[in-house]
Amino acid sequence: MFFLLFESLLFLQFFAVGAIKIPESYWTLKPNVLVVDVDTDKDVNMVEVPLICGEAYEGENVTWTKNQGEGLEAKGNKITVTIEGWKGGNYSCFNTEGSYLNHSLVLAQWTFRKIIKNTPDKGYIHCSTNNYGGSFQCSWTWGANRDGRVAVVAHIKATRSHSESNINCHLDSSGQSITCLDQDYCPYAEEVERINLTIYFRSNFVVETYSTKFYIMDIVKPDMVVINGINQTSVELGYPQSWSTPASYFPLTFQVKEIRCRKRNKCDCSNPNSQEEIVKSHQLPVTKGMTVCVRARDEFCNSSWSEWSQHKCNTRKNRRQRNRKNKLNKIF
Q1: pLDDT value at position 130?
Q2: Superfamily of chain region 226-317
Q3: Torsion angle of alpha carbons 29, 178, 211, 42, nearest 10°?
Q4: CATH for the stretch 126-219
Q5: What is the C-alpha to C-alpha distance for residues 248 and 300, in angstroms, rounded to an integer?
Q6: Which of 14, 85, 250, 264 could be disulfide-bonded to 244 (CB atoms 3.0-4.6 Å)?
Q7: Where along the chain do its domains lie?
């Protein structure tokens, strides 16, 4: 009796471990795409993955191929394939007449970081937005393509932490950035939950996962400040047209400095040796012959500064205009 009980406990333990292990070995990324988790600490990784052609084809004589050419011995609506290491594949099923019915793409996920690069200042994925409209853009830099194949975005997932999310993302034409819009975002309410962004990158039959979390207010970066010259000794600063309104609710703080440069196209406003000043006024005094550099950021958030705008009063041009005007007055 004791041995029967002991064997029953062993069987139940084995069954429970198996029931837990199998779901952890592979999972569904999206319809028709399965992902196998690869344990890089093991020399050999072999995972059995069940595939189904479709419930409508149960009982039919279904045949299968791998990667659009290699025929499989297994037949029927439901089969099991063995994924070894990172050797995933695209499995297609056909009826007795050879007509295509369905497919299942099996990818292997590893923990390495090779498909995109990690940059010191931006990380793997850099996200930003130029206002509080609820939209944002994220970009990345491709790494060296594995096996000479071009890497692509396999899937994008963007949600808030706990609430129901309505965030839509699409891949831009460059293939190196995405544009997203949070349909439920309210710029006048407190942002309680972060956006969780996960991008799955595929190279051949390998997939890598990259995630980042942020508030909209953390990634806001205004467009360049508009600078209009009033006269030779003062300028007026204007908010970017893309910035959120009203300005009284979304105020900007300006960082200003003056630099000396002979030609405007050689001015470097990013020179850290120049003295900088934080101002809120929209009208500023300037020094003749100096170039004024201005950038802005949200007054209430420690987010990113905009790119530098620069302005220089062309005193030579003003002098020529005065001389021309004086000559015309003498003639008439």
Answers
A1: 97
A2: Immunoglobulins (2.60.40.10)
A3: 50
A4: 2.60.40.10
A5: 12
A6: 250
A7: 18-109, 126-219, 226-317
